[in-house]
UniProtKB/TrEMBL annotation:
NCBIfam families, sorted: dam (TIGR00571)
Entry annotated with the keyword Kinase: no
Enzyme class: transferase
UniProt binding sites for S-adenosyl-L-methionine: W11, K15, D55, D182
A GO BP annotation: mismatch repair
Catalytic activity: a 2'-deoxyadenosine in DNA + S-adenosyl-L-methionine = an N(6)-methyl-2'-deoxyadenosine in DNA + S-adenosyl-L-homocysteine + H(+)
Domain of life, per lineage: Bacteria
Originating species: Pseudoalteromonas piratica
Protein name: Site-specific DNA-methyltransferase (adenine-specific)
SUPFAM superfamilies: S-adenosyl-L-methionine-dependent methyltransferases (SSF53335)
Pfam families in alphabetical order: MethyltransfD12
EC numbers: 2.1.1.72
Keyword Calcium: no
Length: 279
């Protein structure tokens, strides 16, 4: 098996540790569609001819397009911010303010990468006004992911990046595609909700609607859909028409590393009649 590739972004809920489990559940197809691409670990560690990679977070997609279109310049400019003097709370908050006030796409992309690596726990969070508000992370030496950036830039030549609502993505899925959905997860408790990675959110109605779209896509349009989510009574109910199985994974968003207990991860596969799997 080829060596796994890490995403260049730190990302809450990233799927690097689940790449093998996800890959063996994805049928073969020409195109992989990801309505919630996040940091892109599945994209980076699968081999499809083409990718349609979407996220509702406009800053994330803007960063990917800037990196795809001009990788050498982007990486050189981003590297300039990863110096010791910038690993400081006052500097971080000044750059965060600059980011929130900027309308320049290239500047926002550079600062988004800087904040991702210098901010707290790899979070990406906005308030109701769309203001990025992740606090300083206090890391000894933030890592500049140069090799990961170049790998992503090269592979992104096979990808089309979009910033759409997940419903719009489902309306434009091409033939001979497979869809992987990694939506904001259903909370395990009333206090555990974390869906504000982009302005808006993702509520239980969206969760049920996504399941309906997946069912229709697989059984009516002929494209299989795989969804991952927390294993709860609610998710088992809304994914009742899918093939379900569970794997145990470590939670990675807890700030206390020694208390990151394993939780059940539900894999819901809506398999089309013509789905084929590589063994």
């Amino acid at each position: 098996m080829n060596k796994k590739t890490r995403a260049f972004l730190k990302w809450a809920g990233g799927k690097y540790s689940l790449v093998e489990e996800l890959s063996k559940r994805l049928p073969t197809a020409d195109t992989l569609v990801e309505p919630f691409v996040g940091a892109g670990s599945v994209f980076l560690n699968t081999q499809f001819k083409h990718y349609i990679l979407n996220d509702i977070n406009a800053d994330l997609i803007n960063l990917y397009n800037e990196l795809k279109d001009n990788p050498d310049e982007f990486i050189a400019d981003a590297r300039k911010l990863f110096v010791e003097v910038n690993n400081d709370a006052d500097v971080y908050y000044a750059y965060r303010k600059q980011f929130n006030e900027s309308s320049d796409a290239y500047e926002r992309a550079i600062l988004f990468l800087y904040m991702n690596r210098h901010g707290y726990n790899g979070l990406c969070r906005y308030n109701k006004k769309g203001i990025f508000n992740v606090p300083f992370g206090k890391y000894k030496r933030p890592y500049f992911p140069e090799n990961e950036l170049y790998f992503f830039a090269e592979k992104s030549q096979q990808a089309t990046f979009t910033c759409l609502n997940y419903e719009e993505v489902f309306q434009a899925i091409p033939e001979n595609a497979v869809v992987y959905c990694d939506p904001p997860y259903v909370p395990l408790s009333k206090t555990a909700s974390f869906t504000s990675y982009a302005k808006g959110g993702f509520d239980l109605d969206d969760q049920a609607n996504l399941a309906n779209l997946a069912e229709s896509q697989a059984f009516n349009q002929g494209n299989s859909v795989l969804i991952s989510n927390h294993d709860t009574l609610w998710t088992r109910k809304i994914y009742a028409q899918a093939s379900l199985d569970v794997i145990q994974v470590k939670r990675t968003i807890s700030p206390k590393g020694n208390k990151r207990n394993k939780v059940g991860e539900l894999m819901a596969l809506y398999k089309s009649a013509n789905a084929d799997f590589e063994i």
